[in-house]
Amino acid sequence: MKDKPVLEKKNLDKGLKRSVGKPACCVSKGGGSSNTASLPDQLARDKGFEKRAQLYAAKAYSRQADKNYINLKKVFFIAISNGMLFPEEVEYISTHNIRDIKTNGHYLKDFQFVFIELPKFSKSRVEELESTIERWCFFFKHAEETTDEDLKKIAEESPIIKLAYDELDKFHWSEKDLLAYEERVMDLQKEEAILEYRLDLAEEKGVRKGKIEVVKAMLANNVDVNTIVKFTGLSMSEIKELQN
What we know:
alpha+beta
């Protein structure tokens, strides 16, 4: 499984966004350096998943073995489950880490596990959603039956989730629809590239025009041709042409 670069995990929303269509991810966080994310393909509902979650996190941590110990990055494991993992009293989003049994002190800080149990997420109406995290959970649990009206409300509050619904919708497109969509994207990219080229060309012409004006002024003040070449970057022949 390949690691994906992740710049930063500031909050759970970003972790959820990166996990669209996947049940779990490991995110290694730290500073401004590159971090890693691993997305296992298994559903997080089978027996023994808790143990496998710890194994995934350990593997993500051990992949940093080539670094100095002091530079090892913290690992966040995020699992989105279609089944129940923990007892009822545990909320639908639960966070777990390593603590001292007696003092409850948090001294080993490099592993954190976040589990999202969708069966415990009880909100079934868009009007009930109060945060981006709740909207993501609603997406994971109710995406297939979301109405256009509900989607519009969600998009107003969290535009990024509208993109997730759009991506999901593509799975229902015909081959013809997909080809038309891809061709349109390519056309737009081509138009954008042409526009950028024209802007660059215009900028180059503007710079050259400015240099020519400078050369004319320097020639009018009898500045040595070699000096003009040095300061403008124009060739000797170009300057002599302007001189004549």
